[in-house]
Automatic annotation (TrEMBL):
<dbReference type="GO" id="GO:0000287">
    <property type="term" value="F:magnesium ion binding"/>
</dbReference>
<feature type="binding site">
    <location>
        <position position="91"/>
    </location>
    <ligand>
        <name>substrate</name>
    </ligand>
</feature>
<dbReference type="GO" id="GO:0005524">
    <property type="term" value="F:ATP binding"/>
</dbReference>
<dbReference type="InterPro" id="IPR000890">
    <property type="entry name" value="Aliphatic_acid_kin_short-chain"/>
</dbReference>
<keyword id="KW-0547">Nucleotide-binding</keyword>
<comment type="similarity">
    <text>Belongs to the acetokinase family.</text>
</comment>
<feature type="binding site">
    <location>
        <position position="384"/>
    </location>
    <ligand>
        <name>Mg(2+)</name>
    </ligand>
</feature>
<feature type="active site" description="Proton donor/acceptor">
    <location>
        <position position="148"/>
    </location>
</feature>
<dbReference type="InterPro" id="IPR023865">
    <property type="entry name" value="Aliphatic_acid_kinase_CS"/>
</dbReference>
<protein>
    <recommendedName>
        <fullName>Acetate kinase</fullName>
        <ecNumber>2.7.2.1</ecNumber>
    </recommendedName>
</protein>
<feature type="site" description="Transition state stabilizer">
    <location>
        <position position="241"/>
    </location>
</feature>
<dbReference type="GO" id="GO:0006085">
    <property type="term" value="P:acetyl-CoA biosynthetic process"/>
</dbReference>
<dbReference type="InterPro" id="IPR004372">
    <property type="entry name" value="Ac/propionate_kinase"/>
</dbReference>
<dbReference type="Pfam" id="PF00871">
    <property type="entry name" value="Acetate_kinase"/>
</dbReference>
<keyword id="KW-0963">Cytoplasm</keyword>
<dbReference type="InterPro" id="IPR043129">
    <property type="entry name" value="ATPase_NBD"/>
</dbReference>
<dbReference type="GO" id="GO:0008776">
    <property type="term" value="F:acetate kinase activity"/>
</dbReference>
Amino acid sequence: MKILVINTGSSSLKYQFIDMANEAVLAKGLCDRIGIENSYLKHTKEDNDAVVLEKSLPDHKTAIKEVINALTDSELGVISSMDEISAIGHRIVHGGEKFHDSVIIDDEVMNAIRDCIDIAPLHNPPNIVGIEACRQIMPNIRMIAVFDTAFHQTMPQYAYLYALPYEIYEKYGIRKYGFHGTSHKYVAQRAAVMLGKPFESLKLITCHLGNGASICAIDKGRSVDTTMGFTPLQGLAMGTRSGSIDPQILTFLMDKENMCVKEINDYLNKKSGVLGISGVSSDFRDLHTAAENGNKRAQMAIQVFCYRVKKYIGEYMAVLNGADAVIFTAGVGENNSIVRRTVLEGLENMGIEIDWDKNTQKAQEMDISTPGARVRTLVVPTNEELAIARETAKLI
């Protein structure tokens, strides 16, 4: 069984083609600048070097065609025809309250995804475009929707409700949904394997720390709370997102800076976070360089980010009444030993004790705890594409 995984953005399309017999990535790539000048396809076959092809990509349908052309090309390809594609797994950011798991895509599912556009205006429309393009080009191949929000649908109502008039929740579905669910579930299941214990028996805190960042409390295999909320803006300070702030700040800024709704939305999502504090960058590599050169704002941005992560770990320790493990994943969580150290120092009373030499080592999966630590601390690289492929294979 060979699965094509599609992750569609507004002007991009990422893909992986995975042989589920051994979970090997046969090919992967990116169509970028879709609908924009100088568009291109970056394609990698197995372990070969990436090949960048300048392509005219006026829309997502054309991009999908170019992906199929690359996969079936005599030199770049890994299959002889589309008939070798068993199914397509689509990453869908928002499924609202309708989906608690991945589903086979049909017209009813498409309508439900469209119904969520109001609460995910930046994410669901390009996801829908990607599905529709695939359905037009490959109408006979089964397609699966894998939702970022689905894993968090096990949260109890007291965890996902906001303290707003209940009628607003009933009318508009305003509640905490959570995101990065595919990643949180994948690394938590990998952690269970590393610990040699059933996933359903563990209390885990997963920290997905990248340009977008969220933390999840998992009790016996079920998400019971997470930091992102109605949108991905809530929770941690992130690369360009503010994270949780006093809501009155919005109306204050709109008044004082004469901002409209779109402007305040862009301000909080694209100009805030560690970029806004530092004035340097949303990339932690740039922040560390600036901080080492004495840039006080860059130093403060790193401290704010790490403080928020530390605080939520403590909060979720309380929610779970202790934890078996804390897991770090995604670009910053996997690769930034300085951030991990800043977050984890001073948590010994919670049972978190770190071998600081191990923390600086680079490895695919590792336990960086001391031998006697009551709570294990793990670094687990995420693999959302493989998780989507597994969900797709399971359903078909």
